[in-house]
Amino acid sequence: METAELEPQVLANRLGVEFYLVRQNNTIGCVITIAALEAHFWLESRASDARILKTFRNGYGRICAIAERKWLARPAATRLELTPADFARR
Length: 90
Hints:
- With about 90 residues, this protein is an alpha+beta fold.
- The protein has a single domain (about 5-85), classed as Shew3726-like (Double Stranded RNA Binding Domain, 2-Layer Sandwich), CATH 3.30.160.140.
- Helices cover about 40% and strands about 25% of the residues.
- The protein contains four helices and four strands; from the N terminus they run βββαααβα.
- It has a four-stranded mixed β-sheet with strand order 1-2-3-4.
- A hairpin with a 5-residue loop joins strand 1 (about 10) and strand 2.
- The radius of gyration is 13 Å and the shape is globular.
- It starts with 8 loop residues before the first strand and ends with a helix.
């Protein structure tokens, strides 16, 4: 996979941000929904792509930690989707 492909991107349907995790020479595609960014990262509704990506980058540490935890729980997964429920306090 090329480096440019690994850059986070707003999905064409604008329902989420696609990003990739790499662990032990394995790469998995992930999507965090716009609903999750709005609910847990203070993204305003109908934000521009630039604002969506800025919000994603600002929350990347937490987003990445949740995605890695989900990947560890589902090691056979080929793709992960992070929704508001993944960020709810337990």
